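User: I've been going back and forth on whether these two constructs are worth ordering. Before I decide, could you fold them both?

Assistant: Sure. I'll take them in the order you sent them. The first construct and its structure tokens:
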Amino acid sequence: MTNKPATPYSDEQSYDDEAPVMDFFEEESYEDEEVEISAPTQTAKRATIGAVRTTENDARQPMKTTASQREPAATKYGRKVFTDKDRLGLWFLLKFPLATSKQLGIVWKIKRNSAHKRLLALRELGLVGSEEVIGMTQLWFTTKKGKDLLAFYGTEDERISRLYKLGSLNLGKLAHRLATTQVAAQLVAGASAIAKTTEIALPTGLDLMPLLIPEQYMNSTYGTMASRFDETSGRTVVDAQQAWRTQERVAQEVESGRLPVSQALAQNPGLWTLTTDYASRSYANQNHPFDLVVDLEAHRQTLDAPVSIGIEIELTPKDPVDLLRIVHTMVRQRERGSVPVVRRVIYVSHVERIFKAVKELRDRLGGHARYLLGATRLNDAEGERYTGEAWRF
């Protein structure tokens, strides 16, 4: 493919591998920023030096130290402040647990090594934990203590993933999880071409965080909305028709003026998951949460004109028929008097067949429907095309 200036979301898009997306990052001297050496650290260093000298001067008289005389274990980083940068990192890891140090570097706009040191300092305080995968750096997640500290400082967000439990890593889903986190990190940093798909200017950093909706949250709220007790089986089941009836009810409340359109999804979060009145999966998926949504509902004016962005991260080839199911559901929502969820679905991928499938479907649909889909490439932290090696994120 010939390298030329990229035009985001065009059907014949090229990418300049010599111009990293993240080239505006600056090296952060972590030790010089907001870090103080605590008194116990200084004392421990002095005690160690003294012990070495004593041993060197009189090797025949080993030191005898009682438990009461031992110095407490010294902390390495001794953090005493909690900054907006820390807040952003903990909040990001609540929504997208198991991120790499490089991905947090994107979020913080600092180099990977500086991000890693900051994460080690937060782990020293018990605010984050780390999972290890052989051949990779640590994968970071916010702990309950970190979540509680965010709440203490006024950051409470129900649209998060479940708190990660150490040792529960699913390697089979890790590549897709890391790719989704990569897309989210670049959005937060203001380094994503997805922002160019909407006329609404996307915020960045802390201002964007409450607008990002992860898939786990959508799954949870859809299950709550669509669940009912089945008397025949004696258990709770998910009923897509019940979800559709909820959409119709909410649409009627908006049309009657009882519910502001900008609050429809906020008060009924189960509606973020695409669903349709058709039971046949040959026509449309009954339950399709996006991998990620950017919530722009505060700017919504009318029921039939959604403004939010749905994002699908695809690491494997897709048939145009698979994409068509999503489009059918989106069109059906507009036709059947329910609540259309997103204005457009953006496919993010490194697989050429994905771009080909999106282009074929756009050409097939024609008219306004063709604007329901877009596509862009999945890039790594340096702005280069993703190679398929998830362990390098």
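The second construct, handled the same way:
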Amino acid sequence: MNKKVLEAEKPIDENNFVVRNAKANMWVGIIGAVICGALIIYPSDTSALWVYICFSAFFLLGLSLAIWCAVWKIEVTDNEVYLTTPFVRRKAFTFDRITKIKFKGNDQVNRITVYVDEKNLFTVQSDCRGYLAFIKKLESEHLIAVEYV
């Protein structure tokens, strides 16, 4: 991780914090939706029907990415975790219900997938705000052991 990510993680409280998607992901969705929406509204005169269909699909994809990134969050308290997504308004569970954690990664992005009652509940990537605090919280609950380099 670079210094900016580590600096952004410092002020987070170790017991009560929020994990959110990176704002850059939301802005990519907004900009993509605006550009594709403009191309739908102001097309060239020679556009065929499939051009409208493609740009409409990309408009909806960008809009859904922006909404997902704005709404999705994980609130961590002393002993509970609250997951909020656009489809599940707020789901609460304790650390005791976590049955499995998978850690995957490469040189650029690391992922932690959390399973509750043997079901994949959510995945947190290293570009999310609060990622390092979430790993430390899982370690303090004795759920994973990760070495920091």
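Notes on the second construct follow. The beta strands are 17-20, 73-76, 80-84, 91-94, 98-105, 110-116, 119-125. The longest strand covers residues 98-105.
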